[in-house]
Amino acid sequence: MIVFSTSVAGSNRISIEGRAAQMAKRKGKRLKIINLVDEMLNVAAELNENVTPNTLLRLDKKVLGVMKSNALHRISDKIKKDPEVDYIIDGHTAFWWKNGPVNLLDIGDFKELKPDFFITIISTANQMESSLGRMKEWKDAKLDMYELMLWSELEIYTADLISDTLGKKNYLIGIDEDPLTLYNLIYNPDMIKVYTSFSMEHRKKSYKALSSFINKLRKIAIVFDPRSVDLSAYKKYGKDSRIVQIAANQTVRRDYHLIDQSNIVVIHLSGLVYSSGVDSERMHAHSTGKKVFLYFPFNKYSPFTPYFVDKMFNTEKEVLAKVKELAAELKSRKGK
Prior knowledge:
This protein has helices spanning about 15-25, 35-45, 60-80, 110-115, 125-135, 145-165, 180-185, 205-215, 240-260, 275-285, 315-335, and strands spanning about 1-5, 30-35, 85-90, 95, 100-105, 115-120, 170-175, 195, 220-225, 265-270, 290-295, 310-315. By secondary structure, the protein is of the alpha/beta class. The two termini are about 20 Å apart.
């Protein structure tokens, strides 16, 4: 299995990738992580080029292309020599540099590598800005938070474009997602994939029960949890801030992408707190042909409540049983 992982510099994606690799090791599997930029720097060193991550993007486009091609070829050779190992190839599909986009990878670059699927690790600009500030190679880049958010959009857009053209999936994974999600995408890719939808506004009151439910769900499904990226941190910048505006739009696009990469959506409403986000998500899922299940432990509700869902359940046990049933059906169909 070969996974190509892309993200913005400073996203600290190694944290979730490393934990997935450790999980694989505990289960007797071998999962290695190879960094494309490091391989490009090794190529440069052998050519006696004094190149660092900080100066990489200053190179002539043709020189950069030669380094990239050689690095990809070397990675491909490493994979062929040890076919019993699974690999995550860390790279960037693009960069945001000097106030504009710089393309690094295109469809042709993956003809030799042939990844089974792509992942884009997403973090908040607050986290990325803090990480970049501690990295020597990016100290002079002077990327502000708004540009980091644009770079994040560019990574997702480019990875989607390349993966769609190759007929592969690009999965968004939040930086704080349970590493079991990445592990199962690699080692149990036929598991049913579930997006969990819920109100973000009463987190202190009901997140304990919600987390317990999601942990049970993870035993039978690959789960995408929108809490894995906390975009609410942008609220401190004020209502009129362009940072808040782009963060709000990114939140909607991110959650829709998570729904699109899932088989079903499970809504968990343990408290009667209105959420326009939950309403929008279930309508998006319903209109794109996804199964939508609603956990709603109340007897009274509006006629609108069940309209955009396939089935309502009064207990979590019933929801889990239905997801398990669908998971078995999906596995049976794929077996044929």
